[in-house]
Amino acid sequence: MSKLTADDLIYGYINGIFPMADADGTLYWYAPDPRAVIPIDTYKPAKSLRQILNKNLFEIRINADFEQVMRYCSAPRSTDDSVWISEEIIEAYTELHRLGLAHSVETYQDNRLVGGLYGVALGAAFFGESMFHHVSNASKVAFHQLILILREQHFTLLDTQFINDNVRRYGAIEIPKADYLKQLKAAVRRKARFTEPVLDHLFSSQERK
């Protein structure tokens, strides 16, 4: 099989599939049914996170160190954790990043990268891939910033692939694959730009309640 490229990734995402590597590096393509998504408009930060946001404990940067975010995400969380982000995947997504289609949201303390996430933006769809944290709440703050960006830039779909406890805390739900593909088709046809928000607030008046 030929080496994974940015074009392969674009084709895959547009058609509702994404790659993951096996332990030996072999790539497989997945299309879960049901599919996990996070409704962008209904996300609401937990009260504890609002307190963290108000303290401004982290500096947030966008696309400042994309490859390093991927490498931190690729590290196993525990001794029995499987690694699905191979070197081939890192190279392909980094190529996609250079094309302006893959993005990272990063959190820093004392100029040190301590948390973040990365994903792919096509049209008004954002495909969340993975996140990491080296300091408590660092990835949660990065995710909150992601939501601000997606809302301000009028994204309509936030794909999180598989359901698990981590994405449930952000409001993830499962929908049938057929429904996902309909939302995907509509989202990739819309125009949206993944750029830093100009919002001067951390959360809306509704989210302060």
Automatic annotation (TrEMBL):
The keyword Acyltransferase applies. It catalyses: L-phenylalanyl-tRNA(Phe) + an N-terminal L-alpha-aminoacyl-[protein] = an N-terminal L-phenylalanyl-L-alpha-aminoacyl-[protein] + tRNA(Phe); N-terminal L-lysyl-[protein] + L-leucyl-tRNA(Leu) = N-terminal L-leucyl-L-lysyl-[protein] + tRNA(Leu) + H(+); N-terminal L-arginyl-[protein] + L-leucyl-tRNA(Leu) = N-terminal L-leucyl-L-arginyl-[protein] + tRNA(Leu) + H(+). GO terms for molecular function: transferase activity. Its main location: cytoplasm. Its EC number is 2.3.2.6. Keywords: Acyltransferase, Cytoplasm, Transferase. InterPro entries: Acyl_CoA_acyltransferase, Leu/Phe-tRNA_Trfase, Leu/Phe-tRNA_Trfase_C. It is found in: Cytoplasm. It is an enzyme of class 2 (transferase). Pfam families: Leu_Phe_trans. PANTHER family: LEUCYL/PHENYLALANYL-TRNA--PROTEIN TRANSFERASE, LEUCYL_PHENYLALANYL-TRNA--PROTEIN TRANSFERASE. Belongs to the L/F-transferase family. Functions in the N-end rule pathway of protein degradation where it conjugates Leu, Phe and, less efficiently, Met from aminoacyl-tRNAs to the N-termini of proteins containing an N-terminal arginine or lysine. This is Leucyl/phenylalanyl-tRNA--protein transferase.
